[in-house]
Amino acid sequence: MFTLPDLPYDYSDLEPYIDTETMHLHHDKHHAAYVANLNDALAGHEEFLKMDVEELVRNLAKVPEEVRTKVRNNGGGHANHSFFWTIMGPASGAAGGQPSGKLLEAIKGSFGDFTVFQEKFSQAALGHFGSGWAWLVSDKGKLSIVDTANQDTPLSEAVPAGRQGKTPILALDVWEHAYYLKYQNRRADYIKAWWNVVNWNEVRKNYETAL
What we know:
Blueprint: H1 20-41, H2 46-49, H3 53-58, H4 65-86, H5 101-111, H6 114-127, E1 132-139, E2 142-149, E3 167-173, H7 180-183, H8 187-194, H9 200-210
Helix pairs in contact: 1-4
Enzyme class: oxidoreductase
EC number: 1.15.1.1
Family: Belongs to the iron/manganese superoxide dismutase family.
């Protein structure tokens, strides 16, 4: 069975950039619903309930066709949100600012400059039509920015046998439930504020693990 992970910080810790009420709604209601629906969809398919959620979404083709769409949507929702919580943190702590070390070098190598990267990532998030996500992914150390619709994830991309696909190292949720209570329809304001709570230490760890 899949379970809802605890937040790695208090609901109020991302204030004033992401408000407490949104964090309660986003984690306790939306994410919890993805977990419940995923378990419901896979009832009777114990081999999949024993998988790690990232392993599950990497292997959607093996899921029975009659429940595959529900697993894709809710498994993606569970995987994406479980990842999303970890790459944020209190602005009073290690969050905000810029990354360092190999990650910063890789960003400069791929985009020329950190500020250019921020602008391109923000544009991808702002320009995504409807609900979805913006991602920074690593492919053998090479970084690129992609966006996905709904709860799709780069983990589910088909890749040649024996080769690991694109690994997410940073993500931004641009579903309206992620920001509407505080920012209404001002997605651009939400994106700008979100940079203040990016936990670059965790993003760096994701990048180093992906190498």
